[in-house]
Amino acid sequence: MNNLNQEITMIAAVEKENGLGLDNKLVWHIPRDLKHFKDLTLGHCIIMGRKTFESLPKALPNRKNIVLSRRKNIAYNDAVVVDSIEKAIEETKNDSKPYIVGGGEIYKLFMNYSTYIELTIIHHKFKSDTFFPKINLKKWEVIKRLDIKKSKKEKYNYSFLTYKKKS
Ligand SMILES: NC(=O)c1ccc[n+]([C@@H]2O[C@H](COP(=O)([O-])OP(=O)(O)OC[C@H]3O[C@@H](n4cnc5c(N)ncnc54)[C@H](OP(=O)(O)O)[C@@H]3O)[C@@H](O)[C@H]2O)c1
Question: How far is CA 12 from CA 32, 38, 94, in A?
C-alpha cells in the first residue's frame, strides 16, 4: 500500500520465457484470459505506455485510461497523457486499486511501486521482442494459483498467478 492507500497491481500475460508480445502486438488469443483481465480492471484506472495504447484500437471502455509518454504535444480524446510516474499515480488518486497494464517498459518502471502482480503464464513458447521484468522471489510471493489445462475449449496450458510483495 502506498501513501495514497492504494494497492497498485500490475496485470500481464506472458509466454513461458516471459515474452509479452511481438511487433507491438499480442501473439496469442485466450478468451478466458481476456475475460480475467476485463473482470479485474473494469471500473478502475489503467496505466500504460504510449506503445501499448497505440497497439489498441481505442481506449479500453469503462476504465480511466492513463498513458505515459515523454512526447510533447501528444493528446488523445479518450485517454489522459502524463509524462512521469508521479503524475500517472496522481491521476489515480481516487482509485484504491489502479492497474498497470503494460508494456515491458512500464512494468519495469512500476515494479517498485506495486503491491500485487496478476500474471497469466502461458506454458508455451511464442517468439517475443518485449519481456516482463524478472520477478525476484526474495521480494514477492505467490498467494494464489489456478492451472488451466489444455482441452477442446483451451488451446494451451496456462496458469493464473497472483503475487504479493512481501512486507
Ligand atoms: N502480454 C501482455 O499482457 C501485454 C500487456 C501490454 C502490452 N503488451 C505488449 O508490450 C509491447 C509494448 O511494450 P513496450 O515496452 O514496447 O512499450 P510500452 O511500455 O507500452 O510503452 C513505452 C513508451 O512509454 C513511454 N514511457 C516509458 N517510460 C516513460 C517514463 N519514465 N515517463 C514517461 N513516458 C515513458 C514512452 O513513450 P514515448 O515514446 O511516447 O515517449 C515509451 O516509448 C507490445 O508488444 C504489446 O502488445 C503485452
Answer: 14, 12, 23
